[in-house]
Amino acid sequence: MKYMIMMFGGLGAATQNRPAEWIAGMHELLMKLDRELKESGECVASDALADPSQAKTVCFTSGAPVPTDGPFAEVKESLAGYWIVEADEERALQIAAQVVGYTEYPMEVRRIMDHSAQP
Amino acid sequence: MVTGQHRIEDLLREFAPQVLATLVRRYGQFDACEDAVQEALLAATLQWPGEGVPERPRSWLLAVAGRALVDAWRADSARRRRETAAALDPSGHTPPAGPTGIPDAGLARADRDDTLALLFLCCHPALSPPSQLALTLRAAGGLTTAQIAAAFLVPEATIAKRIVRAKQRIRDAGARFELPAQPQRTERLGVVLHVLYLIFNEGYTTSSGPALQRTDLIAEAIRLTRLLHRLLPAEAEASGLLALMLLTDARRAARTDTDGRIVPLADQPRDLWDTAAIAEGQAILTRTLGTGPVGPYQLQAAIAALHDEAPTAEATDWPQILALYDVLTTVDPGPVVTLSRAVALAHVHGPRAGLALLGTLDTDDRMAHSHRLEAVRAHLLEQAGDTTAARHSYLRAAKMTASLPEQRYLQLRAARLHQPAPPANPAH
After folding, report:
1. Closest Cα in chain B, distance from residue A48 (Å)
2. CA separation for the pair A88, A40 (Å, rounded)
3. Cβ of B302: how many Cβ atoms within 10 Å?
4. How far apart are CA B28 and CA B138, in angstroms?
5. With CB atoms 3.0 to 4.6 Å apart as the test, which of A81, B168, B231, B303 could cross-link to A48 if both were Cys?
6. Residues B169-203: b if buried by 16+ CB within 10 A, e if exposed
C-alpha cells in the first residue's frame, strides 16, 4: 500500500515567528526523517514544492484558459511538500505524527489508489 | 594488466571523444556514430573488468564501435543500405588498417582537431542549452544517458529524448564535422565555453533539490575544460574558465556543514579549502592574464583568486575586488554582475552604497523572479542595522527560491533577526 503524507503552505506562515533554534530543529527533524525513510526503503518519492505564493493558476476565463498569479487553494491549504511511502496506514500516520508533534501544524495522510483491479 | 575500475573509467572517458571523432571523420553520420560509440563503451564496461584491458584499448573501442555501426546499417532499410555501400567505400584517403581490420588512429594533430570539432558540434548554436549540455556530456564526456540523468536529477527517458532530438537538429541544421573558420570560430568557442560553464554551475549550485552540489558534474566540467585548455593553450578565456572553476571548486568542502546546510563565504573554515586547486588556478591565471583580451572568465577567476588568497574574511582585498567588478561591468554588463558589484561596493563604501546600487535592479525584468536580489538586499540591510527590513527581505527571498538548502538558510537568517512579539499580542 502506498500513502501520500502531505504538508501544507500554512506551516510556513505558522513558523515565521518561531525562534531560530526552533526553525533549525524543524529543519533537522525533516532532514533526519527524510534520510531515515530513504534508508529504510519506505520512501517511494518525496519533494518540497516552491512557496505557494510563487504558484500560478490556470483559470478558464472568458472562454479561454488564462494563467493568473497565486495558488488555486488558499496559501495555508496549498500543498507545500509530500512523502509517498510504501507502508500500511498505521505506519503512515505514525510518520506524520512525528512531524506534527514538533510543528503543531496539521498534515494529511491519504491512500494512493492502485492501478490494478482489487483482488 | 590494469583492471582497476577507476582506471577503466578514466580510459573510456579519454578515448570516447577520440573514437567518436575518428568514426565521424570517416563515415559522417554523427548520430549513428554516437550510438555506436555508446555501445562500444558499454561493451568495454562489461568486459574489461573481467577480461582485463586490451593491449590497445583505443583500437579495441574503435573496432567494436565500427562493428556496431555496420550492424546498425545492416539492420536498417534497403535505402539506407545503398547509402552505406557508398559510405563504406571511401575512395582515396583510407588510413592504414590496424590488426583488427579497422584503420587505426591518425596523428596527434588530427586527434586534436577532431576532439575540438566534436566539442563545437555538441555545442552547435542550433541546439537549446539543455540539449547542448546533455550531448556534450555524452558525446565528448563519454557519460552514459543514465549517468547524465542522475546528475541532472531527471528521468533517464528525458535525457535520452533530449539527445535524440539534439542529434536530429544537428542533422537538420546541416552542421558539418569540422573546425569553424574565423570569425565564426571565436563566436562558436564562446558557446563551447558557456556550455562548460553551465555544466559546472549546474553541479556547483543546483537550481533545485536537497543536495547543494553534484560533484560528478563539477568533475566532468573541469575535465572537459582542462581538455579544451590543453587543445587551445593560447585561448585566454579557455584558460580563464579553467582557472575560475578550480578557484571556485577549491572552496567546495567548506560550503556546507556536516548537515548539508549552507555556510556563507565569510563564515567558511578556510583550512578546508583545497590549497592544491587554489595554487593550480592561480598559476594558470598568472600565466594567462595579459596574453590576450581580458574577458569575463579571466576577470571572475581573478576575483575568485582574491577571495581564496585572503587568510581571513576580514583580510579580503575588497577594493581590488570592486575594481575588478568595475572592469567586468564594462566588459560583460548584466544584472548578476551588478548584484555582485553591490556586495563589493557595500564592503568598500558601506551597506547603504550597496543598497543604492541594488535599487537600480528593482525595475530589471531579468531580476524580477530571482530570489538573489532579495537575498543580497537582506544581507546588506542587516549590515546597515535595519533588522526589520532585513528580516522581511530574508523571508521574501525564502519564498522565492526553488532551492531547499537556500530556503532553509534564508529562513534561519530571518529567524535570527526576529524580536519575540510582546505577550500582550498573542494572536500572532
Report:
1. 8
2. 14
3. 24
4. 18
5. A81
6. bbeeeebebebbeeeeeeebbebbbebbbbbbbbb
Q: What angle do CA B107, B112, B118 make, to 5 degrees?
A: 120
Contact A105, A11 (CB under 8 A): yes
Residues in chain B: 428
Question: Nearest Cα to B34, choosing from B172, B156, B219, B164?
Answer: B164
Distance (Å, rounded) from C-alpha B220 to C-alpha B12?
13
Asked whether the whole model's pTM tops 0.80, one would answer no
A48 and B260 in contact by Cβ < 8 A? no
Residue-wise pLDDT tens digits, A19-45: 999 999 999 999 899 989 988 999 999
Contact list in A for residue B398 (CB cut-off 8 A) is 51
Q: Which of B38-52, B124-138, B173-187, B229-243 has the highest mean pLDDT?
A: B229-243
What is the nearest CA distance from B219 to chain A, expressed in angstroms?
Answer: 25
**B219 at A interface, C-beta within 8 A:** no
Q: Does B401 touch chain A (CB under 8 A)?
A: yes
Edge to edge, the sheet with strand A2-8 lists A43-48, A79-86, A2-8, A108-111
Closest residue, chain A, to B394 (C-alpha): A16
Q: What is the DSSP string of B346-361?
A: HHHH-HHHHHHHHHTT
Residue A119, min C-alpha distance to chain B (Å): 32
Residue B420 has pLDDT above 80, yes or no: no
Amino acid at position A79, single letter: L
Chain B CB within 8 Å of residue A16 CB: yes
Q: Please list every residue in chain A whose beta carbon sits closer than 8 Å to the beta carbon of residue B401.
A: 50
The chain B residue lying nearest A19, using CA atoms, is: B415
**What are B256's strand-pairing partners?**
B262
Q: Are strands A79-86 and A43-48 parallel, antiparallel or unpaired?
A: antiparallel
Look over chain B and give the mean of its residue pLDDT values, rounded to a whole number: 84
A1 touches chain B (CB under 8 A): no
